[in-house]
Write a structure and sequence with these properties.
alpha+beta; five-stranded antiparallel beta sheet; three-stranded antiparallel beta sheet; 6 helices; 8 strands
């Protein structure tokens, strides 16, 4: 449909205005559905981890997506381009029918302003790009996506859960979430959620990692060592029995 509008604008000069309006409306919609369809294609999850020296000592670090301003800059550029096209159409119509140009400028400015607000509202300064990730030491878990760390001691994690939830569209795949449950009946339970889209490594393997070390506190000493890294790479989290103290 979008190609048809472009062809009509080339072959019929009088259809430039309606064609631009059609592209403004159909272009973002086509991009959204194309991106959604691409995201639904099954892909093999990567297996990535490293050992890093932290303030709490050597840690097994699981990578997370680094904050990026690419989407924000694209939204800003799109808003400026659409607003510029609307102004060009308005100026071109001053010697003919300026009311049509003004109407097109108004209609085109709506998605342009939305894109500009979205771009400036989601822009992340480069100062947030640091050593981020999920750090696992024998003593604690530190989760940092670039907006500040969330730290919890292993001994405070009482359970590990996994669930799937729906967000946005009601069709398509759900969002898988790993939940670390802390607290008890006296102090109140609290959950720390790790969404699978916040991981740049296999989320299923991460779930079994948390479950393994919560149930086997004696094995936590290997976190931050080659033994813990090799266990994660091989997914060797089966065959261990939970200790009574961890239940």
């Amino acid at each position: 449909m979008t190609l048809g509008l472009v062809s009509a604008m080339v072959t019929e000069p009088g259809s430039v205005g309606p064609g631009l309006f059609g592209l403004v409306l159909l272009g973002p919609l086509t991009a959204v559905f194309t991106g959604w369809g691409w995201s639904e294609i099954p892909r093999a999850a990567p297996v990535a981890a490293e050992i890093r020296v932290t303030d709490g000592g050597p840690a097994l670090v699981l990578p997370v997506p680094r904050p990026s301003s690419t989407g924000s800059l694209v939204a800003i550029a799109f808003g400026v381009a659409v607003l510029g096209a609307g102004l060009w159409q308005f100026v071109a119509s001053l010697n003919d029918d300026w009311s049509t140009g003004a109407a097109l400028l108004f209609l085109m400015s709506l998605p342009a302003l939305v894109a500009l607000l979205l771009g400036f509202g989601t822009y992340r300064p480069r100062k947030t790009l640091g050593d981020i990730g999920i750090e696992l030491t024998p003593q604690h878990i530190c989760i940092d996506y670039g907006n500040g760390p969330t730290r919890v001691a292993w001994q405070d994690v009482s359970a590990v859960g996994a669930r799937s939830r729906r967000e946005g569209f009601r069709f398509g795949s759900g969002t898988n979430v790993i939940s670390l449950v802390t607290g008890d009946a006296d102090t109140g339970y609290r959950t720390i959620d790790i969404v699978h889209t916040d991981l740049e490594t296999d989320p299923t393997r991460v779930y079994h990692l948390f479950l393994f070390y919560v149930r086997n506190p004696g094995r936590r000493a290997e976190l931050g060592t080659e033994l813990g890294l090799d266990r994660f790479r091989r997914a060797e989290y089966a065959g261990e029995h939970p200790t009574p103290a961890a239940l």
